[in-house]
Model the fold of this input.
Amino acid sequence: MYKDIETETSYKYLKIVISSLKEPICILGGWAVFFAVNKNYQKQALRVYIGSRDIDIGFNSVSSFKHAASILENRLKFKFVSFRYYKNVHAETGKDLSDEEVKSMPQHMYFQMYVDPIMSYANSGLKSVLGFTPIDEPLLKYAFEGKKYGKYVKEFGKNLLLPAPEIILAAKICSAMLRDKEHKRYKDICDITALCLFAGVPIDDIIKTGKSFASKNKLKKFSSMDFAEDIKNCSNTLGLEFGVVKSVINKIKEK
Done:
C-alpha cells in the first residue's frame, strides 16, 4: 500500500486543488471513498481510513474542465503528460522536484503524484477542443443530475460533490478488473470492501444497486477473477477478518 508521505502529500494537494477550483467540484476515486467511509470506519477501527496517492476530479462541461486545467498548469505548476497532470515529489521530505532534479536521483527517492481530470461523457469533439482525449466516466452523469446519486459535502471551504456510494462502488468494480499493477487492484479491493461495510448503506442494497450500473460482461469478468491475495492484503490493511472481506467480494460475485 502507499507510504504515508504519498497519501499526506496527495491530501495536501487535494486541499489546494479543491480550494482553487470553481464549484461544482466532483471528487472521484480513492479520495471519494475516503470521504464516503472515513467517519464510520474511524469509529470501528479507531484510525482514519487509508488515503489515495492520486487525485481524481470529475467534470460535466468543457468550460469547467478547461478552467481546472488552467489552474493546475498555471497557478499550481503541475506538469501535463498524455491526459493527466503530475508533480515529482521527494519521497522523504515531500518537496516538489523538477523533471531535471529527478533525472539524477535514484527512483526510490521520489514519486509522481497525479491529478486526473475526468469527463462525464466522451465524444469525438473533445479532442479538438481540449487538445487531447480525456478520461471519461459515464457513471459521473448520475452524480451531476440530482440528489439521488450525488450529494454535497463541505470540505476545504467548498461544496464538494460526492457521488453516491453505489456509483463509486460500480466504478471501483470496473477498475479492479483493469489494473496492471497488483497494489492498485489491492487498493480497489480495500475500497470496495470499505464502501460495502462503512458507507452507511445496507450491504445488500449497495451491492445490488452498484452492480446494476455495471455491464453484465464486466460483472462476469469480475466474478471469474481470483482476488485471494488481494483479500488477504485488504484484511491486514483494514484490520478486518479475512472471512469478512471474502464474504463482501463473494456477494458481489453472486449472480
Residues 1-163 form one domain. The longest helix spans residues 4-20. The beta strands are 25-28, 55-59, 79-81, 84-90, 96-97, 110-119, 135-136, 150-155, 158-163.
